[in-house]
Inverse folding.
């Protein structure tokens, strides 16, 4: 997969990270975009390979498949490397019956049903303990969301081979447990809770990004109806990946220079979202009583 790439030192600097999932698969490894990789030693452990790439003369880091199980180490490594902007993504099951296979969604909110991994960055790994209790209203960086939506619409509507693909602005993405598909009963419950689509990794990334001070937005591709919504087969997933992974990269390729051009003094969503009284404030309240 990446046997042609070497561990490079010193590792070049980049402020943008792309976190791959099944919406990209292994596509970048078959190009000359990625130049090499490093592994970062963090307080939580050694990160997976963080790849350095260049596209349209914009440097960026690439993380394969959400960090390949090293979720916490991945995000602390990105923070320590100086990343301030990140784009994630995933294929997803469509819960909302208005969604169909192949549609692109830029979600605007989330529900977290994660039971497989740490849900928050431990306080000792944060730059400031006040960042442990972040707000998520909104959960995504709205500057990145707007740029991602514009670029997705431009690519999809400009491609005559994609007339059947819709671009949806907003929706609630739910992260379910990792490693299996959901049951019909679970999907029915998620629908009643307000979820539009279901995937396995995304909300962990939303939370970690906010706590670590990284602006984040995500691109979802509907790869199948969620269980019980409509019939589908595992074989159909391959067709979705083959057709839409290159489209996802075309969107991100056009997005990179737009992210790089965001003014450093522009007001962003993180403002007012991270600062919280130190966790010891509860003890102070108790002492006063």
């Amino acid at each position: 997969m990446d046997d042609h790439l070497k561990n490079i030192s010193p590792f070049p600097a980049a402020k943008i990270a792309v976190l791959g999932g099944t919406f990209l698969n292994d596509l970048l490894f078959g190009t000359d975009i990625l130049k090499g990789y490093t592994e970062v030693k963090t307080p939580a452990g050694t990160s997976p390979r963080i790849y350095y790439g260049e596209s349209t003369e914009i440097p960026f880091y690439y993380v394969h498949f959400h960090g390949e199980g090293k979720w916490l180490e991945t995000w602390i490594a990105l923070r320590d490397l100086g990343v301030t902007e990140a784009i994630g993504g995933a294929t997803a099951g469509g819960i909302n019956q208005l969604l169909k296979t192949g549609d692109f969604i830029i979600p605007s909110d989330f529900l977290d049903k994660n039971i497989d991994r740490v849900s928050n960055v431990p306080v000792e790994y944060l730059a400031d303990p006040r960042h442990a209790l972040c707000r998520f209203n909104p959960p995504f960086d709205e500057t990145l969301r707007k740029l991602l939506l514009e670029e997705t619409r431009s690519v999809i509507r400009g491609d005559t081979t994609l007339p059947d693909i819709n671009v949806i602005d907003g929706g609630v993405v739910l992260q379910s447990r990792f490693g299996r598909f959901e049951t019909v009963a679970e999907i029915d419950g998620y629908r009643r809770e307000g979820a539009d689509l279901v995937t396995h990794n995304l909300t962990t990334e939303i939370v970690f990004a906010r706590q670590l001070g990284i602006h984040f937005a995500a691109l979802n591709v509907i790869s199948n109806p969620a269980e019980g919504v409509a019939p589908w087969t595992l074989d159909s997933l391959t067709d979705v990946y083959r057709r839409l992974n290159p489209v996802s990269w075309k969107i991100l390729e056009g997005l990179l220079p737009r992210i790089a051009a965001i003014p450093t003094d522009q007001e962003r969503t993180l403002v007012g979202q991270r600062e919280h009284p130190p966790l010891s404030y509860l003890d102070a309240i108790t002492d006063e009583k």
Summary: The helical segments are 71-80, 142-157, 184-193, 202-211, 235-260, 281-288. The chain has a mean pLDDT of 93. The chain has one domain: 16-288. The domain at 16-288 is CATH 3.40.50.1580 (Rossmann fold).
